[in-house]
Amino acid sequence: MHNIGVYNIGIVSKLTNIHGATVRSWERRYGFPQPTRTSAGHRLYSQEDIIRLEWVKAHIAEGMPVRAAIDALRAAQEEGAFTASGGISAGRSLEEIGRELVVALESGHLEKVRILLDDAQAHYPLNELILGGIAPALRQIGTAAKDGGAHVATAYRATNFLRYYLLAWLQAGEPSYETNPVLLVCAPGEMHECGLLMFGALLRRLRWPVEYLGYSVPLPDLAPVLAEMVPAAVIFFAMLEEAAHAFAEWPVWLPNVAECGQPLVCYGGQAFVEHPELVEQTEGVYLGNTIEEGLENMDTKLHQLYPGVE
């Protein structure tokens, strides 16, 4: 029943929110989808066609080119990973992907990392891949380097490679809300940026516009930037205790922001998890001890700033 053509292109367009002309264009250019035809030549699409179209649309929204998304779907179908009831079922769990990422990154097999990430994007939504695969892999590598179980250069190589993906994901996705952007800033002296970039990519998945300012941003340089960009909020991340202490001085350098409360100043990072007393000493909105908690809190704050956004 799932593969019987019953829906005309108008119904398919309404169900998938993909314009009919786009569906027909994909069929002409890529041979996808492949509807049946009535005796009069009209296209009829099955429930499975709709699932496939929605899957391809979701991965295009995450930044995949159209041809790459369709090729990924076909590859999954050939591997038997496509199910009519649920779309794509992954061959490997996120935990397995994370473990393979660690091995590939620690051994310097960056082409293997690229293949793993490209394959994982074809099977998992980006937010799940980041939270369930990439973040645990980076934590494991970082902990090993800190404890002497891995060379520090390994951690730098891993983060430098992954940052290019994360920077691209900051820009990819569904159209963002028409609001002022959220500015992402590493605290003064903070060179570890992947945690903040992951947070920004996940915030972008929630359709909030984000801008990444960079690592180790001096507080005195921020005032003119804020005046020019007029962000809705500024998010500071500090992984190191020294960087968290430096960030705590922000009201001295941004007195107008401290006085009027605009833009909203938020912060997070491992330094505040390991040293909770710093939260009591720092003005602003502490987002929480985990990425998930921080995303929920930030999303709530932004919806309070823009109550009309849906």
Characterization of this structure:
This protein has 3 domains: 9-88, Orthogonal Bundle (Multidrug-efflux Transporter Regulator, Chain: A, Domain 2); 94-171, Methyltransferase, Methionine Synthase (B12-binding Domains), Chain A, domain 1, CATH 1.10.1240.10; 182-305, Cobalamin-binding domain (Rossmann fold). The chain has helices at 9-16, 20-30, 47-61, 66-78, 94-107, 110-121, 126-146, 152-171, 194-205, 222-229, 241-247, 250-253, 255-260, 270-274, 277-281, 291-305; strands spanning 36-37, 43-44, 82-83, 87-88, 182-186, 210-214, 233-237, 264-268, 285-286. It contains 16 helices and 9 strands. A 5-stranded parallel beta sheet has the order 6-5-7-8-9. A two-stranded antiparallel ribbon has the order 1-2. A two-stranded antiparallel ribbon has the order 3-4. Helix 7 runs antiparallel to helix 8 (152-171), helix 7 (126-146) runs antiparallel to helix 9 and helix 8 (152-171) runs parallel beside helix 9. It has 310 residues and is α/β, with parallel strands linked by helices.
